Amino acid sequence: MTSAEVRDPELPGRLLILERDALIPLLRSRPDADFALPTPACPGWSVRDVLAHCSSALSRVVETRFEKGVFSPESNDRDIAERAEWTNQQVVDELERGMTEAGPVIAKAGGVLDMVALGEWVHAGDVRDVFGEPGAYAGPGLPDALALLARITREKAHVPLHADLDDMDEPLRLGEASGERTPARFIGDAATLVRLYAGRPVEGLDFELAGVEASELNIFG
């Protein structure tokens, strides 16, 4: 097993802290009206709904509350509804606490909660995308997010893919590594690769994908 395949238990928490330091100041600077904006990446959810989902998910991790059906669409909707009377800043406060405190819990969980950290990072990108911020699915956490994505897709025996990234020195290999299937190929920037694996819109973006349909890459669908 290579060093790249060994789980770094601190990586998910590090990703959350990096994203906390980038996202929370942005959220605190936005007017309340921006929290009501629709989020195309999450149809039916406003920015506030996405943030309430993120904050509640992290609170569940910190408090180890995983009842049957947790993180299902129905559970997510209930978590959002429970925060309906909160102010936007109360939601942001809970999100900041969760991003600060969830890392050690995720580290000790042995890997089963690592995808929560990646999902939180992607949702932060969803919000930045709505706000028109540059680098919606990039930023300081991108290298850690890509490392986590590569390991999660490998452990899930996802479709193998060789990614030649415009903004990274080394190619990225994702998915199962048995060699039984010829890897698909991606050429483009890392943020677009993240969009593909997260099932986010990629219309109008410049990239090449061969050997696999975009829909096959989505790890959250």
What is this structure's SSE topology?
Blueprint: H1 11-29, H2 32-35, H3 47-63, H4 73-82, H5 88-108, H6 114-131, H7 142-155, E1 161-165, E2 172-174, E3 184-188, H8 190-198, E4 208-210, H9 214-217
Helix pairs in contact: 1-5, 1-6, 1-7, 3-4, 3-5, 3-6, 6-7
Model description:
This protein has 221 residues and is an alpha+beta fold. The chain has 9 helices and 4 strands, in the order H-H-H-H-H-H-H-E-E-E-H-E-H. The protein has a 4-stranded mixed beta sheet with strand order 2-1-3-4. Helix 3 crosses helix 5. The model has no long low-confidence stretch (mean pLDDT 94).
Return the structural class. Answer: alpha+beta
N-to-C CA distance = 29 Å
Helix share bin: 40-55%
Q: What's the number of extended β-strand segments?
A: 4
Q: What's the tally of helices?
A: 9
Order of strands, main sheet, comes to: 2-1-3-4
Radius of gyration, taken over Cα atoms and rounded to an integer in Å? 17 Å
Q: List segments where confidence is low: pLDDT < 50 over at least 5 consecutive residues.
A: none
Mean pLDDT score = 94
Shape label: globular
* Proportion of beta-strand residues: 5-15%
Query: What order do the SSEs take from the amino end to the carboxyl end, as H and E?
Result: HHHHHHHEEEHEH
**Sheet bearing the most strands, described?**
4 strands, mixed
